[in-house]
Amino acid sequence: MSEVMDRISLYQPKQKGLKFPVMPTFANHAEERKHRKERLVASCRAFALHNLDYGFAGHLTVRDPEFPSLYWTNPMAVHFSQVKVSNLILADHKGEVIEGDYALNRAGFVLHSAVHELHPDIIAMCHAHTIYGTAWASTGRLLDPITQDAAVFFEDHIVINDEAGAVAVEEGAGYSVAGQFKNVKAVIHQNHGLMTVSRHSIEDAAFWFIALERVCQQQLLVEASGIKPTLVTPDRARYSREHVGSPFIGWLHFQPIYEQLLATQPDMFD
Question: pTM surpassing 0.90?
Fold first, then answer.
């Protein structure tokens, strides 16, 4: 694995020789598979770190780089904090476990496999039953651009009403929801919760999920105050989304989280 840095963001330094995260490149599928699996584990651990767990609910997936019809995911009924490389499972679109010892979460399979199958460009997807996200999902409303944080989702998230509140365990339900994942990085599924997808990396999808949960919390707090917020104007919201809401920025935001996990949770890669 090697590292390259093409300047695609204002945040990347012009001055040479400074320490700054750079995206890796890979010599072969095996190297890239190892990388994706390790970052999937780190994403699960990050969800635990941010208290995004709820029993066995919650599914994170990343497409295999060599066999794109297969995806890696966290094992059923294993807490996010206990997910490691050795207990990840590899599944196909039919819900068959190709590699691994654990069962596949049925609801996770229905939604994630449908999204991955209908959208070959989507590399990774995250979903969890979170406090603020599920609360906001009950409103069936888009989030307003009330902060710079919220502006990164301006015109880049949708509300899906299909199958609202129903546990998605039937394959048809998954396809009716998955068909709407077009040209956005985030979804609010009414009466259910939040979902994020990435055409870039699992790190990108994971960070924007964490960010989306925070934005839901912010909006709920503002609305509870009874004070009408001043919205970011559409042109400024689009500017913020372009410069601080891109897939590269999502990936970049995840890097300090990864480094913290690497220093404190060495069992991730067991």
Answer: yes
